Request: fold
Amino acid sequence: MTWSIIYRERDSGRIAIAVATKFFAVGARVPHILPRKGAVATQALLNPLYGPDGLQLIRAGVDAADVVRILTARDPGQAHRQLHVLGADGRFAAHTGGSCVPWCGHWLGDDFSVAGNMLAGPQVVSETVRVMRERSDLELPRRLITALKAGEKVGGDKRGKQSAALVIYGDDEYSELDLRVDDHVEPLLELARLEAASRERWTTFRSFLATRQNPAGTFDRAVIDAAIEKATVAKAVAE
Reply:
C-alpha cells in the first residue's frame, strides 16, 4: 500500500526517507532514521517494531542484509511484510514478502533503494528510480518529492492517494527536515508546498540551532533575522 525511497548522500552523510501511500499518516510508522548510520522503512502489512529494532541493530554495527534477515526471521508474519534498509555497512537490503499485495517489489542501488507494494505496476518503482538518478541537479528534498511524483504519475498506489512524508537527518540527533501530510486529496502536492514553505525561514533558521559541536547555538535574534532576510532577498532575486 506504499512506495518509499531511502537515500544516503555520500559527501554529506545525510540520510533521507520519502514515502507516499493511500493510507492514513504514513509518516508516523514507515520512516526510521539513525543519523549518519542507517535507516529502515517498514511497510505493506507493516510490523512497527521493525523500525526501532532495526535501528538498534544498525547502532550495534549490523550490516543491511543481516538487519533484514534478523528482523524477518523472528516474525511469523514476515510473508506479509516489506522493508528496506540502509545498514551500518552503508549498503542497502530489502525484503518483499510472498504474501504482499501485487504489484510489489524493490530495487537496490549504491546510494538509494526503492520499495513498494499494492502498486499499479512495476513502472511505479522504475520511474521513481529513473527520476532519482536523473534529477541530481535538484536540492535533496525536491529531488525526492519529484521522484515520488513521477511514480505517482504512472500509477502510484493502485488504490489512490492519502498521505506522504519526507524526513531528512544530517549530523545532528534531531531532523534537518521532517514533513508529514497525514490526510489530503493530493498529498504529494501538499508535501511540495510544505517543502517550499520550509525554505522561507526554516532552512536558514535551523543553521543557528544548538548542536553537539556548538551546544548553545546562536541565540542573537538580530543575527538570525538578518540571515533570514538575506536569504529571502537572494531567493527573490533568483526567482
About this structure: The chain has two domains: 2-186, 205-238. The first strand starts at residue 2 and ends at 8. The mean pLDDT is 96.
